[in-house]
Amino acid sequence: MNKPQTDLGTGTRAVTRELCEWIVGVQGSDIPAEVRREGLRTFVNWMGCAVGGARHETVDRALTAIAPFAGASTSTVIGRPERLDALHAALVNGISSHVLDYDDTHLKTIIHPAGPVASALLALAETRTVSGEDFLTALILGVEIECRIGNAVYPHHYDRGWHITGTTGVFGAAAAVGKVLGLDPLRLSWAMGLAATQSSGLREMFGTMTKSFHPGRAAQNGLFSALLAEAGYDSSVRAIEAPRGFAHVMSDKQDYEEILGDLGTRWEAALNSYKPFACGIVIHPTIDGCQQIRAEIGDRVNDIRSVELSTHPLVLELTGKKTPRTGLEGKFSVYHSAATALLRGDGAPTAFTDEVVNLPEIVALRDRVTATANPACHEASVDIRITFNDGTTLEKHVERAIGSREVPLTDAQINTKFSVQSALVIGEEQTAALLARSWEAEGLADIGEVARASIPA
Asked: Locate the MmgE/PrpD N-terminal domain: which residues (predicted)?
């Protein structure tokens, strides 16, 4: 790396400027093959989730509100016949890709990286032709930037109540779009400043439609930030590191080495993971363990007297809804998730509908689930104790769940996940074609082909 710069004679390292200069200078050939492969897996997983969530009532209501105010219909609403202007398409596709809580996760920060970045890029790509190669490069850089910024402020930022996918996703979207637009370092710094001032998203919204609004708004705001900067709309060039900038205002921790250290050699984008279950990531060990128990005990699942969970305190903080009433609330209930995994073997979107959350047999078992916070338990682990009506017990420890970095989803499992949710929306034949096209993305002359391939036949 070049000698660190200082800004405005203050002696403060010019974090935003250095980062933007690196983004501008990176070529696709500079990104290692294994990182590009993970970027492609990220895109394929995102596309499946965007189609899978396309008919959710959250998306319906967003479109109802937006339609009267939308501009020229340039960009595809993934998995639907509607088309919107690029800014509103980015918003809606960000919502649909996250609404099932089935999308990718950078486990170090709990950021869901693809939603803000891919939604912004693909919407723009239908207004000016972008090759698959350039798209993938920009997607990887956007994911890299949001995760590095997240590393710099996590966990303090998250603990304050900020939804880090929304607050850092806007930087990733701005950086990725700025890369495709060919912004110079100054204009890209302006884009990052415009993104910083629109950084938002509150954890209070978990379990409601507004949670998925966060990555959607981050995509829209990041795209808008880059377009404004392209037109010469300026901002502070110190948006990340300034005393009243993002890092100081929104966190007690500012570790700028996490942003600038080992650029081009340490790739956060290579650490992305993909959910096997459509709910909060901290519930996954419980679902994994309960599914294993169900496979072991068979019909004895109907003789369970009680279920005891010992989990990290964060699990109960994030997913401690004891009596969820809606499918969205169920995604943040470790109690509901344990009950559905035991009784139905389900952790897919079908486990988190309004109907399933209120099924009498699910409610009855859910009421017999207790959870205890154990600070000694890793947040990615769980201990489960089942007591049967005859007094016998069964115990299960899950060290790391399927979908973790230690037990990652294979390409085949990503394909199955894609196909199952997409087929419910656009049918099996079109899903197969869309899946194949998504894997071919890097070689396409026009990445917009993938978006248009998702439009229901």
From this structure: 17-257
